[in-house]
Specification:
The protein has 470 residues and is α+β, with helices and mostly antiparallel strands. Helices cover 49% and strands 14% of the residues. The longest helix is centred in the N-terminal third of the chain and has 46 residues.
Length: 470
Amino acid sequence: MLTRLSLRIRIFLFFCLLALGGLVVSSVALWVSYVRLDNPELLTAFVFAEILIGFGMLAMVAGVWLLFDDNIAKPIERLSAELRARAHAGVSTDMDLQAARYLGDLAPAAAGLADQLSDKTLNIAEAVAVETAHLAAEKQRLTALLTEIPVAMLLASPTHKIVLYDAQAAEVLAQICHPRLNASLFEYLKPGPLEDAYSKLVKTGMDVECKLISIDENQSYSARMKPLGDAPGYMLIFEDSTARISPDAARPLVYDFELLHTAAEDALENRALPDLCFVVFDTETTGLLPHKDEIVQIGAVRVIKGRIVDSEQLNMLVNPGIPIPAASTKVHKINDRMVQGAPDIAKAGKVFHQFARDAVIVAHNAPFDMAFLRRHADDMGVEWTHPILDTVLLSAVLFGASDTHTLDALCERLDITIPNALRHTALGDALATAEALVKMLPMLQARGVTTFGAVLVETRKHGRLLEDLN
């Protein structure tokens, strides 16, 4: 039972037990002395002595505990977090040895081990970099070949989740809603024709010609479904796509082949962290009062299989319907002229809601940003029932509640640089938060926090932090 508690709480309980034991021993000693004296007139004196001893002992134990907590427990907690960050998050900044100066030779020894680990990691990284460069070159050649094909093409898993899409397919999907890896094709296309074609593909093992209908029934597509040989899933080619990409335009190939082999989905709380899809977002607002201020910008990025999908981003200005105060413009550089013609929160919020469908929403101080969205849920015609993670609480789990947990402090700990031009922009802060999340996920797993349910249990222990922030 005690092993589930943090080191600082266990030490606090130890000192509480020490204080209680001291009070019991002093009380028994005074009682035995009083009984042996057999003088009832001295009872008041003995009681007064016990009160003085009790207060004195409590004060002494509390003082020693505070010193021990500040100089031993907190530095050990911080040292553990820094070592874990270096081992699992690729952090290479110098360790804070001054904060652990009372731990004797432990801090220098840990720093030496961390440096040795960093050197070995660097050697491995150099070898990996050579192979990565080779694979990157192969990927570029493959991407160039595929993007030259004048058709829209995507790959889907057996459960009809998107595994790969090219630029032309992205244009087709975008006519319905934002293209996203691991999104169900049923968000874009009517299930019936798609499932019928797939059943025929499985039965015959041959290409299947099919007529697909968009989910809103406004468009239809002539398509061909092709098997992937020994791999699960299928290729879907839109043969009559009207999407045309300029020859000079960037035409990315977005994919994650691990999604082809995704196992049957367990209950959310039992799912492993790498198997979750995260949408990390941030907002800029007219002020700091969610009950009366409004959103002026939404930025979001998707994280799949523990990596940021650079091409799947959302960056929208929002017309707040009220003047933007000069003090707020000074922070996020968004003024009234910039939001003229931008969608209002009802439209922008609905777009973001679709972008975050079937994903865990992540934000830094999420209650603040979510309060704005939930206030306008009726106008958007949506319900914000997404599971939510807060990087403030993840930081507290990994680095201790006593540390500072601002986004800047978290990025400094994890060796993340936020360009000045992007700080206090919705997309810039969302990207920084996503980088922090990606680095914290392996740190959580190293601590034995491997499922979404386990993360929720740990973060709930620090819920008071958000109450203080808001």
